[in-house]
Design a protein that fits this description.
By secondary structure, this protein is mainly α. It is 76% helix and 0% strand. The chain is built from 14 helices and no strands.
Length: 250
């Protein structure tokens, strides 16, 4: 059976102690102590990637890696912290943070209420809040309620024609049977939406409107993009690929 030489075992233990001190001094969640000590040296590596590396390296890739690692270890951490922030000070900023966290956990009814409560006063026409609430309503299968919010966004010279708004509009139009308008919005989103969700939803739209050949062309484009995607983001990308492929049937 393979075992580490004694000097390496000692070094691993010393590094684990240093990391545990870092956990305590920086106020991290105490479960990190158990992870670091129980799963040497892997636990220490995970802690380094999730907590220490992002501030050091500062780049978006490092930050996303750290966020993904923390989310995998404790998927409800951001929700808990956001909920505490709202309890302390129920500002619009804190409510929006909680709404985003609730959305990531699939708590769309809660997110919708948070956005609705924030759409008052000087924030009554805020594009982020309007879009957030519209997306929550879409997930709650309430496209008739979402459409006026998106149309209100469309009245803004800057907030109406973005990839996120067009994707939401396409989903609403499709749900309401307004296929020509859905096609225009979803096609535009497929070309402009960052990541894979836009093209995946357009592929599903084509498949569900009996245009399987066109849907297969889009699926092939997804596969082409997926082959060039960085490994750290491939899991999410593959999720959207599988979503599209299920509708196409391949």
């Amino acid at each position: 059976m393979f075992s580490l030489p004694l000097p390496l075992i000692g070094l691993s233990f010393l590094i684990a102690i240093v990391l545990c001190v870092h956990v305590v001094r920086t106020g991290q969640q105490m479960y990190w102590l158990w992870i670091i000590l129980a799963f040497q040296p892997i636990g220490g590596i995970v802690y380094f990637v999730a907590v220490i590396a992002p501030p050091w390296f500062g780049g978006r890739t490092a930050q996303k890696m750290g966020q993904a690692a923390r989310k995998a270890i404790d998927p409800q951490r951001e929700y808990r912290e956001a909920a505490r922030a709202v309890e302390d000070t129920a500002t619009v900023t804190n409510r929006v943070r909680l709404a985003v966290a609730a959305t990531e956990l699939g708590r769309h009814a809660e997110a919708e209420k948070l956005y609705a409560d924030s759409l008052t006063g000087m924030y009554a026409d805020d594009p982020q809040l309007l879009l957030g609430r519209a997306n929550a309503l879409i997930e709650l299968d309430r496209p008739n309620d979402a459409l006026p919010l998106l149309e209100k966004l469309g009245e803004s010279p800057t907030g109406g024609r973005t990839a996120h708004v067009m994707l939401a509009l396409g989903r609403v139009y499709h749900a309401l049977g307004r296929e020509e308008q859905a096609e225009t919005a979803l096609c535009w989103a497929a070309d402009n939406y960052p990541g894979f969700e836009g093209i995946a939803r357009y592929t599903v739209f084509l498949a569900r409107t009996e245009r399987k050949d066109e849907a297969r062309v889009q699926l092939a484009e997804i596969d082409k993009r997926l082959s060039k995607t960085h490994a750290h983001f491939r899991k999410e990308a593959k999720g959207w690929r599988d979503f599209a492929a299920q509708a196409v049937g391949g």
